[in-house]
Amino acid sequence: MKCKRMVLPLLGTAFEPGRLADTLNEFEDEELAEIAQAEAYFFQHRQKPV
């Protein structure tokens, strides 16, 4: 089965440091935008020290 969609759209997007919010707002496809927002949340998460 061929997939025409990116699995992780944010990781497949080039953007300048400090422009994450702008990049997330530029996704036109609503479903891809939701996935990209979830990626951003995942990668920004900071683990609390033990």
Can you walk through the features of this model?
- It is a single chain.
- The chain is an all-alpha fold.
- The protein has one domain (1-50).
- 42% of the residues lie in helices and 0% in strands.
- It has two helices and no strands.
- The longest helix is centred in the last third of the chain and has 15 residues, at 30-44.
Oligomer: single chain
Structural class: mainly alpha
The H/E string reads: HH
**Overall structural domain count:** 1
- Shape descriptor reads globular
Binned strand content: under 5%
What value does the Rg take, in angstroms?
A: 13 Å
Outline the biggest β-sheet: none
Q: Uncertain segments of ≥5 residues (pLDDT<50)?
A: none
The total of helices stands at 2
How many strand segments? Answer: 0
Percentage of residues in helical conformation: 40-55%
Tell me the distance between the termini.
44 Å
Rounded mean pLDDT score: 87
Keywords:
single chain; 50 residues; mainly alpha; globular
